[in-house]
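QA checklist item 7 of 12: single-chain prediction sanity check.
[x] sequence parsed
[x] length recorded as 504
[x] structure emitted
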Amino acid sequence: MIKKITIVGGGSAGWMTAATLIKAFPNKKITLIESPNISTVGVGESTIGGIRNWTSFIGIDDQDFLSSTDGTYKLSIRFQDFYKKGTFFHYPFGEPLTRGNDWWYKKFLDPKLSNSDYADCMFPQMAFVNKNKLSYDNPKVQPFNFDTDTAYHFDATKFAIWLRDNLCIPKGVIHIKEDIKSIEQNEEGIKSLNKKHKADLFIDCTGFKALLIKETLKEPFESYSDLLPNDSAWATRIPYKNKKKELVPYTNCTAIENGWVWNIPLWSRMGTGYVYSSKFVDDETALKQLQKHLGTKDLDFKNIKMRVGIHKRLWVKNVAAIGLAAGFIEPLESNGLYSVHEFLFSLVRNLEREHISQWDKDNFTFQCKSSFRNFAEFVAFHYALTQRTDTSYWKANFNKTWEEKLINLESTPLQGFHKYASERAFTYYHDQKGGSHAISAGMNWAPTTLNSVVWITKLSKENLSKQFWQQKVNELDNRKKLWEKAASKDLSFHDFMLKNIYQK
């Protein structure tokens, strides 16, 4: 029976783990040991919608949490130049209002239509994004649900401190600042840390170092370098020049020579960085490319080496791994903290059993690795659909041979998107979960073809346009105009944050 749990490592992963465990198991002894001399990686300032489930479980109040962490709300991710240079599209949170197939009627009528129009037509919150506005509850911008269709930007370091001081230590988490200098092992795994710290379960939150699961227990690591191209990053912070204009409710990702640049708008500053592949560019050249993109060298830049992949097992003997210690994909789609809270939910589920068997440990590994792999394939999808060949990096992605799940869209996580092929039904309600629909539309990959529709309906292209399509197109356009008109009357995003978070 697990009564004592010791978390090794702080940062976002460590303190999220502590907050989760003390909430789920208030009667267990939860201890967190962190080194006073190790700084956090600092990647993880942007989140996706799943974090709302975790904050709800923990009982976090937005106003207190965001105002303490330099936080802002996030409604979407914008992708610039991923498909082709000069193009962009959004991936908003939440579910699209109607069948994604409906928008392709519009695209067939106007092949030159920007692919960014998909999100504008299918997601009401895009009216807020495009107008740089926000409202908790605008009755005409529906079915937007503020509690489920938003995520957060925040300062990851401040986030960890806030969790520590507000949700962990006050509720009984024991906090020890100490370097781990010795680790004793036995047949159960870890016997003690520094010859005095013992526990029934140790949680490794030591980042890429993976002190317990990798360096001590020697668990093999499975690289994802064959699937994902990037392994390095430069990160920095930049001040606002025009805060009211630059403070936007989305993360911006811009593809450049050998990877992509993120821009995350916090309340007082922006976080930015360049994710790239060391196979195509060295660190010094990559830094120059980022500086050129930003238009300045007068910033403090931090280099990060990413270990892309995941350990073969995530619960080995009496050690479980969470966060970067377990595995990492890359920052695209803001998945760093996503894996933390999803792994924690799986851990809690298994710890709810009175006694932990090998089956529980293996179940934890299976659940986590399955969701992790699916997300990695989703991230890879952004590179697989590119049409760019202007550099060696993008040409390599364009010419890459992709594994089955990324070309057979009936497979997880893109299940159902291409099922029309077997059912011969253009109106099939394809699966719109997981974001594949938004990425596919944004990168011009249609779920069907014009010829398919003609063949199925037995109508000419001209009659289809008159009898079948135009009504759908009008419905989409009218709804988009309604959303935009309604959103234009709301507060600017800056003023919304000021009024509801930072003036209180």
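[x] summary fact logged: The chain has three domains: 4-45+155-226+308-380, 95-152+408-487, 232-305.
[ ] second reviewer sign-off
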